[in-house]
């Protein structure tokens, strides 16, 4: 006898929570529509009704994850603390917690899928832009307070985040010999040099 399919109270949110839980437990390779449906006690067709494709499930899970992290990022950028301390906290928040960090697994997978699915780029760029704006705000605060040397804050953000993206990719895929703390140190070394911060 077929198992009864249950009705979800908050279908989209519950699906996204389940997708992130599946990625956290088993990685992206194990995330299938059938597996997600089993986890939720519903059907694959029900999931596709809300998202349309696995690409959209992944993209919306990434958006959901970033939306949950954004208030924490804005809080650390705006807190009453020295600008360099806030910048170090930003770098720490940006980088993966370690190999197979589920949020970063999603970022890397979505990046790779934009080659074949260009429409994913718009949402990816929108999510990335939030990190850019908060970093620009942080550096502008530091410049205004006299803690940082005047600089092109937009260009600094682009360069620092490109560095962090490269470091993050190596961390999340588990490149041998990679050390998260040393990467964070490299990023802050670049910031110190560019912004003329006393070490």
From TrEMBL:
The entry's keywords: DNA-binding, Repressor, Transcription, Transcription regulation
Domain HTH tetR-type stretches: 9-69
Segments of the chain annotated as binding DNA: 32-51
Pfam families in the record: TetR_C_6, TetR_N
PANTHER family in the record: HTH-TYPE TRANSCRIPTIONAL REGULATOR RUTR, HTH-TYPE TRANSCRIPTIONAL REPRESSOR BDCR
Name the record gives this protein: AcrR family transcriptional regulator
Organism: Nonomuraea africana
The organism's taxonomic lineage, starting at the top: Bacteria, Bacillati, Actinomycetota, Actinomycetes, Streptosporangiales
